[in-house]
Amino acid sequence: MERRQFIAASSIGLTATMAGCVGRSLGSDGAESDDSESNTGASSTDGEITVSADGDIEVEPDQAVISVGVEARGESADVVTNDLATGADSLRTAFDDLGIPDENVDEGQYRVYPARGRDADGFEGSHTFEVTISDVDRVGEVIDTVVEAGADNVGHVRFTLRPETRTERRADAIDNALANADAEASHIATNRNVSLEGTTAVKTGDVNVQPYRHELEAGGDAATGGAPPTEIDAEPVTVSASMTVTYAFTAQ
């Protein structure tokens, strides 16, 4: 019986082998690869189709990470260090007032360095924090509060997913990728006039979460004085998965 293999990815390679012979498939670059392992034990079928597919889903974010910080400039490094310490204490007080747990506040970058610029003198410095909140509707409130507390730098907001949500939605992305693989294999089988008989191998690729990042600056997006509260609309987070699935087939 003639044994054949169809491989679908960025391109489709075809393999035809006689029973008892070692099969070699042609990849997209035309190089031969030994497929003897994938053909083992498939004597009841005529060959295999291998498909690589992706699956993407969009999910509303349920977690936000806000980057905020204070900056200082002075004649000496000691002056800058003291000013940064005072500003950082004000931000920590604001975090407490907002009810943000200490474990949700990560120390970011701390720097004190000579002032930059050709005619600059003295020293400059910055101290940043990353604040994680589980209620994305409070992002504007947090930004306004830290700006009022003296934040000089509100760099960005990263909308993402909680760990438990990542796990749940990861499975959905995999399901989507598998469905796409099934559809592509079915199309190839119809085109080649063969019948799919079942799955012989599945390989899971990367499953990625792509957060939505919103750039902002204090005095820009943030409300000050009597301005209306800051509102930031979060875009959906994308969860993507990739799969490689091999199907057995018989000739019709």
Automatic annotation (TrEMBL):
Residues 24-56 are annotated as: Disordered. Gene3D superfamilies: Protein of unknown function (DUF541), domain 1 (3.30.110.170), Protein of unknown function (DUF541), domain 2 (3.30.70.2970). PANTHER family: SLR1258 PROTEIN. This is SIMPL domain-containing protein. It comes from Haloarchaeobius amylolyticus.
